[in-house]
Amino acid sequence: MPDEVSAFTFRTWLRAGNAEEWEPGHRLLLYVDDGGNAAPQAVSWGTVDGAQSSLALSRDLASCSGHHVTAAGDVREIRGELQDRASDPLDVERAGGHEFDTETEGTAGWRPADRLRLLIDDGTELPLRRAAWRDRAGNAASVALRSPSPSGNADVTDMVTTVWASAEHRAADEVAANLVDGTHSTWFAPRNEASLEFRFPRPVVIDQYVLTSSGDAPDRDPRSWVVHGSTDGRLWRVLDSRGGESFDDRHESRPYRIYVEPRAYDRYRFDIHASNGDPHLRLQAVRFLAQSSGFTGYRHPAGHDPVAYRGGGSRRNHRPCGWAPFRRACPRSRSRTARGTWRGSGVPSRCPLPAPGRGRRARVTRPRHAPSRGRRPSPSGARSSVTAARRSRTRTVSARPGRTAERSTR
């Protein structure tokens, strides 16, 4: 295949320190198209958890080597062997990457530039925070992705203003609002089924969410749940379903990507249907990661001075099971409904997305305790309940039934 823009799939191995043995790593997908027509020579990236990776491709593009620094600071070597190469950018465009309308700044001001299509998937399911690359023609670029949060960070959990739970343990201060307060405090429910609802001040497109296990018994971790989104609290759209989930360690944070067509909601609800065996539920934290709204960076054309580079209008697309690398290892196959199957013509039994070129109508549901005439549901569970008098932190509480506990953003 000629030296041109392509989508590369590498099988990778990792080696720590001076160890002699290589351990299998995640599959790595690379696709960078900034308007040039040259294959990449080197690529580096960072994810929202702080992990960093950098690698260079061989002359024949059949292998790669580099290094990876974990979020904890551990350094590992990387090597990879080419597993697949696709030249059709339309397939990659639907593969879960970003697409931006871009501009560069010159002496005459900002001018439109070629569209940027970017896909770097290292198997962790964590969103990109930054990326840099250099192609074989000598052109280089670096971008830092932005999100709708005031800080530009992908983590928009601090924007949550209200947390509601159908069950919690108020006497021990193990309330639902603890899930977003950034501490090691936990939420405890004296049952193995419960609902959690998080409200934002304005609609936000959530790309991923992260659950953190508590330090308690693993049997109390959630095992299956369904995530919904809503703009009015009455009609809810299914965004993600999981079943058979478990955590490997205590206080472990695990990301989950939402693969349905992205839309903005100001309410997100988790219906937890089962624990891992215990009659109770416990969870330490829930975090929300937003879809990128653009990027800031620079471009350095070969033989020229670097110029400012920015982009907006990010469009995150679905992963089609029709593309060969995803047929072998489609990450969506880990998603299941509560019954463990997905319905749809021409779609693999466990894949929640439509086949390429086919639409899928949003599945809209009503809450388990459907309100009448738009009133707030009032299940028998408790609300988040630490008063400002008891604790000068962020929550306010009303003892009246049917009211939610609000978390201030002060």
UniProtKB/TrEMBL annotation:
Residues 9-82, 103-145 form the OAA-family lectin sugar binding domain. Pfam families: SBD (PF17882). Signal peptide: none annotated. This is OAA-family lectin sugar binding domain-containing protein. It comes from Streptomyces doudnae. Residues 377-400 have a biased composition (Low complexity). InterPro entries: Galactose-bd-like_sf, SBD. Residues 358-376 have a biased composition (Basic residues). Residues 332-410 are annotated as: Disordered.
